[in-house]
Amino acid sequence: MNNRWFHLIFLFILLTGCMSQSPEKNIYFILENVVELEKPFKEQQKPISELEKKESEIYNQIVSLNTNEFEKIKQLSEEALSVLNELEDRMNKEYKSIVQSRNEFSKIGDEISKINDEPLKTQALQLQKTMEKRYDIYESLYSHYIKALEYNKKLYEMFQQENLSLNEIEAQIQLINDAYKQVKETIKSFNEQTKQYNEAKLKFFEDAGLNIEKQSKSTALLR
Hints:
- This protein is mostly helical.
- The chain has a single domain (about 20-205), classed as Up-down Bundle (Four Helix Bundle (Hemerythrin (Met), subunit A)), CATH 1.20.120.570.
- It has eight helices and no strands.
- Helix 2 runs antiparallel to helix 5.
- The radius of gyration is 25 Å and the shape is elongated.
């Protein structure tokens, strides 16, 4: 047989096999891609945690200084602002990864509509709802975190001003504390939702009868 014809026939068989693949199996591949796209999100966890710790240490150094050590306070404030800028950059990388993950995840809607087993379809729809809620929580988390960073930056800019009143500093610190409280609460919700999603995904694969050796999990926030 002519090699050209052999390759064409092989390609046709391969494409036919892909087209006839079950929607359940297609959902599996989509969800594995979702995890892959969240790798940059996962990779940001440790650096972000380390930067948060570094900023906290700088803050403690500043508040331990006397007001007559203004130059030292100014220097440390510049260092803190640099750390916060890097934190913002890391958060934006994390956010971009989640957006890409969400775009890939949106593909499961078409596959769910093709599932013939009604109880399994209902289960898949619940899985979709669980993950969408996870994405929504992250959107809220990102918003709270960026706001907290802005308040924090403002504080270090204030530290660089001489003759600043204690009331002004305390008011700014309160804004920061309130913002980070929201961040902490949202992280908790995100992690709980991630756990629910991972459990629901595993159950869906089991109930769909998919014999899967590898089943990747979506990442919770480590900080």
